[in-house]
Amino acid sequence: MRPSQRPGPRRDLVERPLPRAPRETARQVARPDGGMPTGEQLLAETQQLKEALERRPVVDMARGVLMAAWSCTADEGWEILVWVSQHSNTKVHDVAKALIATTQNEPLPAHIEEHLPAARVRWQASRDG
Prior knowledge:
5 helices, elongated, ANTAR
């Protein structure tokens, strides 16, 4: 009887477990400066991530307002919000909240109202150019 005719699994076809990738341990997850993050740092980072998740819908709604009002893309709406934020020295989230409030007949704060028209002119010039 030849080996290929023997009953049972062939040695070359037997499934072998794949080698495992080394698991990351806490010692391997280090900060850029070489140290380990402290509990306080991890807690602060977690809090920042929670705030970002809460603020994102507001920013997305403001992008939608700009998209509807000015017929811009979502990316262009983001760039407009960022530009106004940088030039008015206001957080993007606060610019977004103020813009959304205008849909409820609330006036824009003066420091944002100064820069929004300039952002529109800049956006239209980039679109036409």
